[in-house]
Amino acid sequence: MSPGGPGTPGTGSGLDAAISLQRPGFGLDVELAAAPGEVLAVLGPNGAGKSTLLGVLAGLLRPDAGHVRVGDTVITDTAAGVHVPAHRRGVGLLAQQALLFPHLTAVGNVAFGPRAAGVPRREAERRARELLAEVDVAALADRRPAQMSGGQQQRVALARALAPGPGLLLLDEPLAALDVDATPAMRSLLRRMIRDAKQTAVLVTHSALDALVLADRVVVLTGGRVVEHGPTREVLTRPRSPFTARIAGLDLVPGTACAEGLRTDDGTVVSGRSDSATAPGDRAVAVFPPSAVAVYAEPPHGSPRNLLPVRLAAIEPRGDVVRLRAGAVDGGPDWVEGLAADVTPAAVADLGAEPGSALWFVVKATEVGIHAAGS
Amino acid sequence: MTTTLDQESRSRRRSAPDRRHDTGVGLPWLLWIPAALAFALIVFPVLGLLIKADWARMPELLLSDAALDALRLSLLTAAISTALCIVLGGPLAVVLARGRLRGLRMLRSVVLLPLVLPPVVGGLALLFLLGRTGLVGRGLDLAFGITVPFTTAAVVLAQTFVAMPFLVVSLEGALRTAGRRYEAVAATLGASPALAFRRITVPLVLPGLASGAVLAFARCLGEFGATIAFAGSLQGTTRTLPLLVYLERETDVDAAVALSLLLVVVAVVVIAVGRPRTVEGLR
């Protein structure tokens, strides 16, 4: 167990891991590192080895070769024969399913970890209630899991995972099983409780948005190997593997949150809807799907919309639609580079567009989400 | 346990098909005949007992010394045997459900043996093992002067022998249903295997344990063959209710019927209290 109580900034320890595990028809061979307080997202298609990786970090699987260090503690080292059992690792887990203990109340669930560490009942329950308040479910403290919604259960599960003050927290698609309605609030909560609290974490996800909002850095895993890694926005805006390109198929504009939406570093304002966790002044990204971008040859007039001058860089046929890739116009902002717009082949013909043409990308403010996104 | 069962039955009722509209795919009508016969085979003998009973003499018959001795002995030995089943069979179920040794599958089929073995054969086997000339019995006799057969301890052993599989099977099922996921979560929260077992696993399988214990208790109460072979039929020491029923059948049929009805009542109570899903999934 790491020093420092739950919720205090910088509870996390650094992670350093090199893991090799071979199974019939599958091999995992990765190196990972996360600085103290950093959130590392692991993206990858099904069968890429994400679950195996988490199993090894949690101590539920023993790798064939390699080591795992959390802070200064070696918890796995095959060469030295070290395999610290799961319950002595200080590695917490929040999975897709909340898996709250059905026979315990919310308080009982959250107090379980501290109790296991020898904290007296009264003290453990006091801490549990505090944590439940921090995840906004203080009112449910004395309820059993069966009397809570999926989103509420997941909040309690987060409080429970944080309660022992883990050096490393593993997040295994923590939003995947939630209702669409419950997801944004839980995502904001995770950001507040994990990223803002400097809790070192490894986040496995399928969602580019989750990675963008929650993670500092990303590794992309395919076939048991790391195929891409780097700062989240860099990896997602310049995808190099087909998998990343597919899941990242979103337009991203970095900047600072402001009242209208987002202000880029060169002062352009992109209007959009902020999620509840984003306050003016936060570093943020504006996110919109390429299908929401309309393309004009001349600047249109009308409802409040974002109007971006671009130079057409590439035309990529994608099934029924054609993806237009933007490049910067001379003297214009460079952040438009790489933005994509999906339009019909007929529209391309109408525009008479070809690489090098000057065009306007137009996005309705209602299609643009503004998400706080650190670094 | 009751709350769990209540919740379960409530949810089952909620999800039950709407009978007025849901016609389903139908049932071959021919099945109704053997099904009705099977049901009759179970119900009619019990009804027969009720008709045959001499209700006027009932109090006298049930309160005789022999009957009270037998009832007391039956309840006492069944309770001890059930406790033994829990203490020994509980851990066995955990090992079978969670152990990773090779050959556990073989072991599981051996555990089921008393379910399919004629009880009288089990009784004989116990006698040959623990009898005064038996493999273990000789040693016990020489070293400690202990003789097991034809004592109350023998009744308990015989009942434990036949009832053990009921507890093990239903508890093992509960353990498998609960799965290992909660235990894994407990481990990531810092709970040692022992703590996770005590605070998570045991409470989760408590309903399964309770229903297994009820089944085992019922089986103990009804035990006849192994008891008579291994413990004999001595009033107050080894003559349990079923043995008394069999004995009275020769001399006083009314008494046998009265005692049988007593056993029927106990059985009905047991079914009412402990008829959970484990009975349905037993064999």
From TrEMBL, chain A:
Domain ABC transporter: 12-248
UniProt keyword annotation of Disulfide bond present: no
Record keywords: ATP-binding, Molybdenum, Nucleotide-binding, Transport
Domain called Mop: residue spans: 301-372
GO biological process: molybdate ion transport
Keyword Transport in annotation: yes
Pfam families according to UniProt: ABC_tran, TOBE
Organism superkingdom: Bacteria
InterPro entries: AAA+_ATPase (IPR003593), ABC_SmlMolc_Importer (IPR050093), ABC_transporter-like_ATP-bd (IPR003439), ABC_transporter-like_CS (IPR017871), Mo/tungstate-bd_C_term_dom (IPR008995), Mop_domain (IPR004606), P-loop_NTPase (IPR027417), Transp-assoc_OB_typ1 (IPR005116)
A GO term for molecular function: ATP hydrolysis activity
PANTHER family, per database record: SPERMIDINE/PUTRESCINE IMPORT ATP-BINDING PROTEIN POTA, SPERMIDINE_PUTRESCINE IMPORT ATP-BINDING PROTEIN POTA
This protein's name: ATP-binding cassette domain-containing protein
Species this chain originates from: Pseudonocardia bannensis
TrEMBL record, chain B:
Species: Pseudonocardia bannensis
Coiled-coil region(s): none
Keyword Transport in record: yes
A Pfam family per the record: BPD_transp_1
Entry-linked InterPro entries: MetI-like, MetI-like_sf, ModB_ABC, NifC_ABC_porter
Major location category of this protein: membrane
Segments for region (Disordered): 1-21
Transmembrane spans: 29-51, 71-97, 109-130, 142-171, 204-235, 255-274
Protein name as annotated: Molybdenum transport system permease
Assigned protein family: Belongs to the binding-protein-dependent transport system permease family. CysTW subfamily.
Its biological purpose: Part of the binding-protein-dependent transport system for molybdenum; probably responsible for the translocation of the substrate across the membrane.
Biased composition annotated in UniProt, kind: Basic and acidic residues: 7-21
Entry-linked NCBIfam families: Mo_ABC_porter, modB_ABC
Example GO molecular function: molybdate ion transmembrane transporter activity
Compartments where located: Cell membrane
